[in-house]
TrEMBL record:
Domain of life: Archaea
One GO-annotated biological process of the protein: DNA integration
Keyword annotations: DNA integration, DNA recombination, DNA-binding
Name of this protein: Integrase/recombinase XerD
PANTHER family (alphabetical): INTEGRASE_RECOMBINASE PROTEIN MJ0367-RELATED, PHAGE INTEGRASE-RELATED
InterPro entries recorded: CB (IPR044068), DNA_brk_join_enz (IPR011010), Integrase-like_cat_sf (IPR013762), Integrase_catalytic (IPR002104), Integrase_recombinase_N (IPR010998), Integrase_SAM-like_N (IPR004107), Tyrosine_recombinase_XerCD (IPR050090)
Lineage of origin: Archaea, Methanobacteriati, Methanobacteriota, Methanomada group, Methanococci
Pfam family, any one: Phage_integrase
Classification via PROSITE patterns: CB, TYR_RECOMBINASE
Oxidoreductase in keyword set: no
Amino acid sequence: MQNLKNMILFTPKKEEIKETSKSKKWVDKFIAEREFDGIKKTTIQGDVNRLKVFLNFIFNRLEKNPEEMTNAEFIKFFNYLEKERKLSRNTQNKYYNNLKVFYKLMRLENFKDFKDESEERKRFTSFEIKHYDSLSTEILNMILTEILETRSTTKIRDAMIIRFLWDTGARISEALKLEYGDSDLEKGEFRLRNTKGKEERIVTCSNDTLALVNYCLKANLRKEPKDKIFQTYKGEPLQRNRVSDVFRNAVKELKSQGRIPENKRVVIHSLRHGRAVDLLDKGMPIDIVKEYLGHKSLETTLYYSHSKERQENMLKQIKKIL
């Protein structure tokens, strides 16, 4: 309704943004930092356009420099975006994220108070969706096979953990903190206590994965209730970077062989993404998927329900009946 209203009513033209020598100094420095970080030119251009709007506002309206901005003045800027430039909340989020990057790269501290207060009051998007591609079981099997074909002495354990992450949809940090006291190794049920959302939840795995877990756990040196179930051969808790490296190396090798497209962003978190899409595809109600994955917001789960992978599958199914 609001969008229709905006289309019908006459609104003043947006203020023209002109680059000055003063703003150019900041823009050039920002571009240099972003290029050094290897950011794509198209992304940089979008960031620069938003930065110019910010610099134009503070130089001309507030007569302030970036390092002089206060909390109240940042609020004035975002009110300007909403009331005068008529920008949506989603676009304002982009400006907010843009300024976080800008102030970080410029090594300026005065954005921190506004950032902290905004997070506390949930002014902007309270979560960030990272656009990873999800996994299909076909790609997952290729990754597992690649791991099993290495000469690593821990390849069975590493593959088991990948399977476990897929089944449970657990974040890697949650899985690696699992203790024996939280694990029912007969039923295949695991209580995740150290979760991102600070709320406990129970996850499960298939019988095949459970059998593999029990097989690998026989080699553990420490098996007290407070001991972690995923251990090194020395009995130390397994570290996140070890599992991530194994997964990353397998994906890298498969990409070099042309078996996974170069532009497909497959990371360890793709297992969790893939589990969400897989459950939704199999008809699991979205509220149950939300609880199982430990999402605080239904909006996060809805993102997966509208994922590119699900849309592609939907089109294939429709094409079959045409």
